[in-house]
Amino acid sequence: MLKILGRVTSINVRKVLWLADEMGLTYEREDWGMPLRDPKVPEFLALNPNGLVPVLIDEDFVLWESPAIMGYFARKYGPTLLAPEEPRARALCDQWLSWQGVELAGSWGYAAMALARKVPGYDDDAKIDESLTRWTAKMRILEAQLGKTAFIAGEAMTMADIAVGLAVHRWFSVERETEPMPQARAYLERLRGESKGGQYLTEKTP
Predict the structure, then answer these.
(1) How far does the signal peptide extend, from start to end residue (predicted)?
(2) Contact 156, 81 (CB under 8 A)
(3) Which CATH number fits the domain 87-200, given the four candidates 1.20.1050.10, 1.10.10.10, 1.20.1440.20, 1.20.1560.10?
(4) Which residues contact 50 (CB under 8 A, 6 or more apart)?
(5) pLDDT digits 0-9 by tens, 10-23
(6) Among positive and negative, which fits the CA dihedral 71, 21, 157, 184?
(7) How many CB atoms lie within 10 A of CB 75?
């Protein structure tokens, strides 16, 4: 059986769990990640030297980084409509999956810790404002794209929407006035209603 190591409150773990659920995969999840279980211990570092979740164990195969795990699911346990095989459609899926992990996630840092996850110590207003400004700029790119297509990479849901949808949920978990982003809000509701990801798009998991 597949084993996924990571706490469900991690956005990157939820990417992997959501795709596994959409594909109907059978797996066992084991809690790792602070504050539940320290991933910096030798046992975990032997699997992922970065000390980060998620980690996938498939028999004797170990894999980390959520986009890589998602791609592995699609290749080994597919085909799945969430990972289109037509080259241009797959390229767009990969483009937005990468954009979420690098550009969008790279922008929210301090603001997400302070305003969504409420981590103690993240209380510098200047740093919050600076992070929120960068985050807003990236959300405007997403908002513009969602004004053109129903899903982030076109008219059909792909695994890129899992990553982007979780990021949009995080945006609306911020307890501060932000730009409305109506296209993103409508998109989030579509994902809640048209997929198995509703359980991962709740207020308890920013």
Answers:
(1) none
(2) yes
(3) 1.20.1050.10
(4) 64
(5) 999 999 999 999 99
(6) negative
(7) 11
